[in-house]
Amino acid sequence: MNELSSAKLCAAAHLIVGDGITALAFLEHCTATAGDLVVVIGKQASALGRGVAYATGTPGTPWRYAYLLNSPAYDIDPAFADWLADRWDAVRETMAGRAPDWLAWADPLVAAGDIQGVNAPREIYGDFIEEQAKKAIATLAARGVEVRCVDASATALDVEGGQVTVHTDIGTTFVAQSLDVAPGGPSTLRIDGDDGPFAAPTVFGQEERIAEHIRAGAEILCIGGNAAMLDVLRLCQSLVPEDALKFLACAPEGELPEPLIPRLPRRPLQPNLSRDHTSADSLLAEVERTIAYARDAGHEMSEIRAGFRAYFLVNPLADHLTDKAEALRVPAHLRLWLRGGTRDTILEMRRLIAENRTEILPGIVTKIEHGPDGAVVRIRDTAGMETTRKTGFVVNCAGAGARSTYDPLTQDMLRQGLIEVCPISRGLKVGAQCRTKAPMVRHLSPATTVIGEDVTAMPLYDAHMLRTYAARASQAEPAPT
Ligand SMILES: Cc1cc2nc3c(=O)[nH]c(=O)nc-3n(C[C@H](O)[C@H](O)[C@H](O)COP(=O)(O)OP(=O)(O)OC[C@H]3O[C@@H](n4cnc5c(N)ncnc54)[C@H](O)[C@@H]3O)c2cc1C
């Protein structure tokens, strides 16, 4: 909806930048009153809620619906899980006959009465979220608040005289009393040569080009071992049968995350950590012991991860470790120890590795060179030794890397000192309730690691966590004691 593109200036009560689930959560909790105009500015604001992860795929492509949520539906949002179960017949129809055979993985859970435990296609979660966005807009309209969604990119902002001005790439400038910025995570780390005849700098939006090479029988080398790598595997599986699959990954640890396997009855771990730690090492040792006991007691990683996530949402790190510099050392470890991912694809990948049909090369890709019929990647292993490997096509799914770069508005906010990069966790640092140095501007991203006195124990690259933190940011500030 770009109806404002011809106007040069638009005054609103409140602005939201972003079109993902965090922007939607800010809208759902927005306190605008009758007569107010709220403007949502996002690259795809007209599909508010989907953001990057839950976008609508291209109709008719084999890989449409191939990308899955990384955890069971109930873990993303119990309301989504019930919504999915209510529409199961329609979902079954949509997914029938697709490769990889998603229904074959879902069927045992369905038979066990656990539709809520499936790893749903991300686009289907996006359908649910978009429905929530429409409901939120209707609820605000019933309160007399107009919401306008404008497809545009916000490029910079000025804060002056109690109001905030946001500049966009469509030439319209927006002015309001307050602003929420929910721009998503940092960009993928660029690697020398990752955009060329035999390499793509990302998988998303590049599928047509990558598919040509997969169909032609080229080997696909994916840089990175995270969720996006699993998406590339599924892209390949959607296009060629298993005996024609030529896929491998290169990742620093050379390891896969653990599959998040659902079970009935649900038994999330219930940690209860001591509150008198004086160092990160001592808290981490207790977490490590708790994880080991949980494993001995037969807990699945899905239960351990969900238990710690719920625990730290109620019991912030600061309650266990008052030294903030020490607390900042904790999240990087928990991120690694509580790493989990899509059950279907990780178990598939494990099987393919066991059958020598694929592999994960340990190391870091430092450069990609393009030859006449493929690419050569330079790989540095953990000992610093460099090797090369000839391959067909390279897809960069490396993640953000240590020196993250962000969207233009966040970069502008960093330049102005409105938000900061935490020197220890390397994540983004905002004030209490996600306020920036200009209190009428809030910022929340999956990369946020410090919110006021709260150090987020587990990364916010998680739909449930982001929605929780956006809701909290909108609660009334506690009275000073
Ligand atoms: C591919 C992928 C898969 C994922 N899978 C899962 C999963 O299975 N489960 C899970 O819990 N989490 C998953 N995540 C983590 C994900 O980050 C969060 O779940 C959540 O989607 C993040 O929402 P967000 O609104 O903060 O950011 P995003 O979804 O990234 O949305 C931000 C949006 O704002 C737009 N934007 C940014 N800057 C500007 C600007 N300056 N002007 C206008 N628009 C702007 C962007 O284009 C983007 O669409 C995944 C992430 C990715 C990238």
UniProtKB/TrEMBL annotation:
Entries under InterPro entries matching the protein: FAD/NAD-bd_sf (IPR036188), HpyO/CreE_NAD-binding (IPR038732), L-asp_N-monooxygenase_NS-form (IPR052189)
Residue ranges of domain FAD-dependent urate hydroxylase HpyO/Asp monooxygenase CreE-like FAD/NAD(P)-binding in the record: 16-184
Pfam families xref list: NAD_binding_9
PANTHER family: BLR0577 PROTEIN
Protein name as annotated: FAD-dependent urate hydroxylase HpyO/Asp monooxygenase CreE-like FAD/NAD(P)-binding domain-containing protein
